[in-house]
Amino acid sequence: MTPAELETFLATEESRQVGWTYEGETEAVGHQSGRRIVEIRRKKKSELTEDDYAHMRKVRGYVHRHLAQGGPKEDAAHSRWRYSLMNWSHDPLKA
């Protein structure tokens, strides 16, 4: 997803309603990650930090694990599985 696509998705109810939230927090881990991904993707390569690279490795791991689980057999387009992946900047319905 492009940074603009991700930002648009993060503003939706679907985005805010999925994912795991730490006790005492109101924003899911994936939603926080999505905001961070937007920031990272808008940086120049020369501006990236080791923390940025570490976060993107975490993103890659999350996406690979959840894709391996497979999505729902029916209505994947409107599933929590898809919305969760989209919070991490990956739309499994796009080629």
Q: Outline, from the CA principal axes?
A: globular
Strand content: under 5%
- Major pleated sheet: none
User: Oligomeric status of the shown chains?
Assistant: single chain
Q: Mean pLDDT score, rounded?
A: 96
| Number of β-strand runs | 0
Q: What structural class do the secondary elements suggest?
A: mainly alpha
Distance N terminus to C terminus?
A: 11 Å
Runs with pLDDT <50, length 5+? Answer: none
What's the number of helices? 5
* Helical residues, percent: 55-70%
Spell the H/E element sequence. Answer: HHHHH
Radius of gyration in whole Å, from Cα?
13 Å
What does this structure look like?
The chain has helices spanning 3-10, 13-16, 29-41, 50-69, 80-87. By secondary structure, it is an all-alpha fold. Helix content is 56%, strand content 0%. It is globular, with a radius of gyration of 13 Å.
Helix and strand topology:
Layout: H1 3-10, H2 13-16, H3 29-41, H4 50-69, H5 80-87
Helix pairs in contact: 1-3, 3-4, 3-5
Primary descriptors:
globular, mainly alpha
Task: Describe the structure in brief.
It contains 5 helices and no strands. The protein has 95 residues and is mostly helical.
